[in-house]
Give the backbone structure.
Amino acid sequence: MQRLPILACAVLLGACISVPFEPAARRPDWAIAIHGGAGTIPRTTPAEEAEAYRSSLAAALRLGAGRLEAGARALDVAEEVVRLLEDDPLFNAGKGAVFTASGEHELDASIMDGETLSCGAVTGVKTVRHPISLARAVMERTPHVLLAGEGAEALADEAGLERVENSWFSTPPRRLQLERALEQRRAEQGGGTVGAGVLDRHGHLAAATSTGGMTAKRRGRVGDTPLIGAGNFADDRTCAVSGTGTGEQFIRHGVARAISDRMELSGRSARAAAEETVFGRLQAGDGGVIVVSHRGEIALVYNSEGMFRGAADANGRFEVAIWED
Amino acid sequence: MQRLPILACAVLLGACISVPFEPAARRPDWAIAIHGGAGTIPRTTPAEEAEAYRSSLAAALRLGAGRLEAGARALDVAEEVVRLLEDDPLFNAGKGAVFTASGEHELDASIMDGETLSCGAVTGVKTVRHPISLARAVMERTPHVLLAGEGAEALADEAGLERVENSWFSTPPRRLQLERALEQRRAEQGGGTVGAGVLDRHGHLAAATSTGGMTAKRRGRVGDTPLIGAGNFADDRTCAVSGTGTGEQFIRHGVARAISDRMELSGRSARAAAEETVFGRLQAGDGGVIVVSHRGEIALVYNSEGMFRGAADANGRFEVAIWED
């Protein structure tokens, strides 16, 4: 009700002046946000270890920023950035993925094109080096959205994607984590799920997310990462979202779509929509999201101790962070 | 704006009178909606065949209505009704499921409790007679929401659920459909995915959905049925939804959650929310949904030639239908 007089003024003044309710920020020509997981990231992490994470995030962000500056498509950039993070052993995706309870790796990934709402995802992948590219193959080469297990792997050969032994994904720190998890059910440590949300120069959004899932997960467990609308979503009308955290909670609350729906149906900003969802629906410690809106607004919102994250845009923003610092 | 004077009247008159904007319908003490699939259901279907479908739907509806009248919980009723439909060879769930391209059956199911938002789902199940009960076991016996393939089946023994040979699900009409699909990619025929949305006497909602997927589907293909927020959703604040149709479209548009979000964020009725989503987002022929709201409103909305469906409530409603008739 209080807004009515202001609204009336705005309508009366019409095309003559604009009434900025928020500080005017120039819409960037492109924008990108990335993450490398959220969760228990102790503040006591040794400085050189934290620096290694920052360095990896910055490398991924530089790759994306450079490609976007050159006019690359959001969908391509999202895939390329996530491929780089999949190859980075620090994060729980591709090389460096966590172990299942039975000592294997089962990888999940999804990708979505905000222009067409085309999307693809895979779950339970064991031998494909870049699950994010297999997700893209599902999107482009099949009438389906989500393929599981061997059915997904069969597509890798058709798409000419690199296959590796399952043990190729193994790293000593992740094996130690499995041993600890089986002994004491200790919390996850180190880098987690990776993801990218991208707005390109052409006004299109894309989101890509890739993960090894939970340490010591039950065989066949599917988390939020391959589920469109849970851990990953992009729609040119609203935003691109990639999530990381307790997958079951992200599925239950349909986090990625809930953020998009709050922007579309309630007119929320990316930040407000993400905060309502992450603080109002998820439980403390569940994780976080990165959101890039169709106007280039970036929101990095989490309710855990930290989130490996980065943001860059055409207006010169370039930052990586782990905690509130 | 036009509502302001009316609103002012309503506020002034306060507790004295109510101002019904819509025809007043007494909130039923319980309500249930079911479906047995949507799609190409020719109007030329022989009368006795259509009658068989109606009879099966009525039996499921009677089971649910009787249990609800007696005070049973929504979650239990949703599961029991879907179990009955899984055993019915007319529908594409459990016995009578369609064949995959390789001549097997891979079943998906999910269930959600609107009171707690607890949910469970399975995909790629080959040997469990009642996939909906396995979905419930995922919900109640694991920290996970979705289990795939052998990982899901392993839980069946822990939960004491009946196992059957994969060929137990086979029926001659479905084998004929597979042969036709492999030859000519003919459209699906006969009953489809099954589902139930339930409001119980205690004010709680639940949704359950079960399917054999698409005829001649690719191995490992996961549709919308096991994906919370796509083909199944329940939240006591809004509604219970079960969907049926082109799964990939239901995933892309997150149909079940989109309906709930429209009720929650835009104040839509169940019918308006379902119509906006089914007619505004899906493409003609994609399928439909059944929705039961927290006030007992039932919406049965589809954009295909027909939908096998039924609705009953404590106010005496009891109906089954296939087309607009």
Summary: Chain A has one domain: 28-321. The CA atoms of residues 124 and 220 of chain A lie 7 Å apart.
